Amino acid sequence: MKRICIYPKDVQVVTGKSERYGRTIINKIKEDLNKEKHQLVTIDEFCAFMGFEISKVELLIK
Question: Is the pTM of this model over 0.85?
Answer without folding.
Answer: yes
